Amino acid sequence: AISMAGSRFAYVRNFELPDPLLPETYMVLRIDGHAFHRLSADHDFAKPNDERALQLMDHAARDVMNEFKDIVLAFGESDEYSFLFRKSTALYNRREAKILSTITSLFTSSYVFNWPKYLPNTPLKYCPSFDGRIILYPSPTIVRDYFSWRQADTHINNLYNTVFWALVLQGGQTTTEAHATLRSTVSSTKHEILFSQYGINYNDLPARYRKGSVLVRTEVNGEADANATDAQSLESPSPIPPTATEVSQGSKKKKERIRTIVELLHCDIIGDDFWNARQNLLAD
Ligand code: ATP
Ligand code: ATP
Ligand code: MG
Ligand code: MG
Ligand code: MG
Ligand code: MG
Question: What are the distances in angstroms from CA 99 to CA 64, 66, 133, 173, 192?
Answer without folding.
Answer: 12, 15, 10, 46, 46
